[in-house]
Amino acid sequence: MLGLGLAMIFMILCTVPFIGRNGLVLDEVFSADITRTGTGLWQTLTTLENNMALYYATLWAWQVLGEDEFTLRLLSVIFALLTIPVLHVLVRGLFDVRTALTADFLLVANRLFLEYAGEARTYSMLLFLCTLATLLFVQGIQRPRWWIWGWYAVVLAAATYAHYFGFLMVFAHAAALAWRGRDGVPWRSFLMSIGLVVLLLVPLFLTRPRNLSQVDWIEPTSPAELFYLAVYMCGGKAPLLVVAGCLMVFTAMWWRRAFADRSWALWLVFTWLVVPILIAFAASMLIKPVFMTKYLIGCLPALLVLVAVMLNRTRPVVAISVVTLLTVLMVVGQVRHGAYGGGTWREAVAYLADEMAPDEAVVAYPYYGEKPVTYYWRRVRGEQSGPQIMSISQGPFHPGGGASDPDPDLVRISTLAKQHQRIWVVFTDDTSRRLNRHWWPQIEEVLRLQLPYQHQQKFSALHGIQSVTVYTFSRTPPSGF
User: Fold this and answer.
1) 113, 80 in Cβ contact below 8 A?
2) pTM above 0.85, yes or no
């Protein structure tokens, strides 16, 4: 228990002091904005998108504690923290205490785990629920009880409500059961649980949203994505080399000779890692690109458990050395690349609030920038009326981005330029032609015909993540021009 407690304390020290220092990124703004009111949340889930419904509902209740960055992200920290003892109990039951402790420390040092532990999105909840579902699955086999299988179904359904990819755990667990053969396999209990899961998911189908294009931003999938997934899960290319070396040595030397009595436990961990990834990859290649590392974060513990199992069959000095090396490499990666990046919308809107006059117009391009500008204006100035974000779109668009945008209304932009002495444009460098976000040169040209003087203020995030530029177009030269 001491080692488990130390792992949890280490995770707290790596997250809590840092989660409030940077502004929200676009996806986090979307989470915070739609969960401000129950009415807004319901409208989003029934008309826009119902993925991550459980997380949004939880965040809506959580916001009674506050709307600042620290409070919003603290919910994800809690789910990440709860994952550690669940994983510990699972691995201890499948293998032994030493393996469980090794897996604990590999998890809390993992950069991918820490990154999403500090983000106001669903992925930390998804990781927790996938791990808990696997624990209940194992307990249902080891100690068959109807209530265990009932809770297994509830948690699997909850994982699906947290993210659609949570349902992929069904296939991973089914593949693990198939390895055991027919004798002593509780197929009936398992299938009844899956039936209950499907029943519990009926509301997802009844509230099927109209918008089905919120993942159009995902690039077409190629086999190289599997390599990048391995890099992200291992916390960087250097840790990947260490992990790959460990797994190859393990496979070559010990799989058959030393683990005959643990073969099913290893197969369970293997299917937990591989099956969801292969299904997502195949769907992306054959149907629609949906292959994203963060969607597959529920597989992360399985990779780390495999490494922990291998290390547990070496000398203690070797295991300690490898875990220490991985921890150092991951910590260095966090320092170099930033485990808690954040956006710059907060700073950009604070600049707007200080510099613009009440009768001046604000435009956002791409259009989804309207949401973070409105959100942070309320945060900066309270509930007092702020600037109206002038729409320049020819039609409706997905407020959180992700889908192809309609063309901008260049006539409308020209009219706005004639009506105002100054126009402020909050611009994000998103020039995707696939999503029809390549119109900035034309927008800029139309504005400069009426407002020839231009000034820009750039707000750069860590490593260029969601940097924002505020352009000012004015009819007369600004002071000091």
Assistant:
1) yes
2) yes
